Amino acid sequence: MAIRVLLVDDQPLLRTGFRMILEAEQDLAVVGEAGDGLQALEQVRALQPDVVLMDIRMPRMDGVEATRQITGPAKDGPAKVLVLTTFDLDEYVVEALRAGASGFLLKDAPANELVQAIRVVAAGEAMLAPSITRRLLDKYAGHLPSGEESVPDTLHTLAEREVEVLKLVARGLSNAEIAADLFVSETTVKTHVGHVLTKLGLRDRVQAAVYAYESGLVRPGAQ
């Protein structure tokens, strides 16, 4: 079954470029396009895509609010949202992640990265590129906790190893990289990540990373 993709961007030329890239892949199918957030909501309901490639700044309704409605409790389908961004618009990316996006990608990313990101998100994983994540969180260093604040009570529900895994997730490491770092199997890492998400009431690794920074468990710029 091909992964059904909805393209959402207010620039028709960009949508055309993305369509050409994605339709060259046998396992991807572009099922529709939208030029703003309101059109995106209509298309999601009508077309039931697996992944929505979402721009941030658009007329009528921006990508943050559209993402919130697509992935929220009243959602009409299983669509995952992959946010497209440029670094001059970063102030909206963290809000999009809080709203329910499963990851983000630069608009000038190579075609193979775009294709792989869609596959990752469609599979239920989070697209959390370490280099982009660090740059974004460094930019927000003045707005996120310093690490000196008391940690939220929910964090105390985690076992010591689960806290270690959460820190590594926040740094953008994959399951394989975490396994190598902690000298355990990938299956063990997946189990720990699952426990972290369940205990903290989080949807995926992206929300876990944002939580780790906002709680002060990890500080921007720290390794």
From TrEMBL:
Keyword DNA-binding: yes
Annotated HTH luxR-type domain residues: 151-216
Superkingdom: Bacteria
Keywords: DNA-binding, Phosphoprotein, Transcription, Transcription regulation
Domain Response regulatory, residue spans: 4-122
SUPFAM superfamilies listed in its UniProt record: C-terminal effector domain of the bipartite response regulators (SSF46894), CheY-like (SSF52172)
Record InterPro entries: CheY-like_superfamily, NreC/VraR/RcsB-like_REC, Sig_transdc_resp-reg_C-effctor, Sig_transdc_resp-reg_receiver, Tscrpt_reg_LuxR_C, WalR-like
In-chain residues carrying the UniProt-annotated modification 4-aspartylphosphate: D55
Pfam families associated with the record: GerE, Response_reg
Entry GO MF terms: DNA binding
Biological process annotations from GO: phosphorelay signal transduction system; regulation of DNA-templated transcription
Listed name of the protein: LuxR family transcriptional regulator
Lineage: Bacteria, Bacillati, Actinomycetota, Actinomycetes, Kitasatosporales
